[in-house]
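User: Hello! I'm new to structural biology and keep hearing that structure can be predicted from sequence alone. Could you demonstrate with UDP-N-acetylmuramoylalanine--D-glutamate ligase? Please show me the input and the output so I can see what each looks like.

Assistant: Of course. The first part below is the input, the amino acid sequence of UDP-N-acetylmuramoylalanine--D-glutamate ligase. The second part is the output, the predicted structure written as tokens.
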Amino acid sequence: MNRLVILGGGESGVGAALLGKEKGYEVFVSDKGEIKKKYKDVLIHNNIDWEDKQHTVSKILNADLVMKSPGIPDTVPLVKQIKEQDIPIVSEIEFASKYTNAILVGITGSNGKTTTAALTHHILKQELQVGLAGNIGDSFALQVLNENVKTFVLEISSFQLDDIVSFKPHIAVITNITPDHLDRYAYKFENYIASKFRIAENQTKTDYLIYDADDEVIVDWLTKHPVKSTLLPFSLTKKVTSGAYLEKDRIIITIDNNIINMPTDKLALEGKHNVKNAMAASTVAHLLKIRKQTIRESLENFHGVEHRLENVLKINKVQYINDSKATNVNATYYALESMGAPTVWIVGGEDKGNNYEELFSFVNEKVKAIVCLGVDNEKLLKSFSSMVDVIVETQFMTEAVKIAYKLAEPGDNVLLSPACASFDLFENYEDRGRQFKEAVRNL
């Protein structure tokens, strides 16, 4: 019997443990932190061997296969030991994909991947049995085990792509690539770009790569590192013969000379970046033979994902907006770009090597005050203190919201768009967003 060792007892780890057991593996789950009670209960109920708050090296290095949580970097000594023993390491995405014949749609990118994945799923589910997994929703492995669906939409992070071997989505989407997570990639942008493009590395010409043709990083990389996939670009600025483009407020999609067009004025999600997300999702839907009418209606009634430019409440004519999912500068760029009123901006957290320069014009034009919410705000203070009259620091969400409340006047926005990771003060970006919403409701 082959031994499967799983590092990390979270959603993806426990899902893979259950799938592994079903497929005849002897399974062991090991987590350096504490495994949440709900996951422990599942492991115990299914008689799966586990440990937490430690890694027993002898029980790990006798594995035939290791599946590691995407949060564990390759630089960790234990991972190096596993590699030295030539034990293969895979991601949950890689492991689970071996056990399904479903059509796989893989979506990656620095920003927009969650919205695009959720929107794609929303369109497809009107006519197909479809699962949503990866970086979003329930574990992919668990859905492969329990759900008999013919199509999966997978939101995939660069960390998950780092541990793929033969994983191949039939349709791959790259929404955009901007510097992010550089702390995990030796501070080399090209390492991070290469990681994103792994989504297409096993594709053949019968598979599709949908990408943003306005993104110079993507276009440049494709010129130097051609892929085998059939390319379907989307663009707001230029006409494309195959793919999607914008013409006078209409999205035109052309695949195999079959043309559909859709008005953008009825899109439920606002902003240029959401026109791009709509193009990517519609192109996937068109490839999978979803009716034009269904695509149009779905784009008109989809209202976005939690923590992404989410309108929370209006208090004293001030709109409070939760964009906690903006964990990098580019995401915050889109948020500030879409502000149509003077804005009190709550920013900060764990900096991943941010360069704030691209935000300067928006901050000068739209931001009236800044609330820094992080353990170390020095870089923010240095970057922005000359641009706004008021810049204050705090380490508590409740206090940040109270300060913003005092600074905002009727007609203003209060925007939480941190441009940073959340791990210095919060469990994750969801926790940060929920604390923001709770603090706003308690005003």
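User: So the tokens describe the shape?

Assistant: Right, they're a compact way of writing down the 3D structure. Reading them back into a model, for example: Residues 5 and 28 are 5 Å apart (CA to CA).
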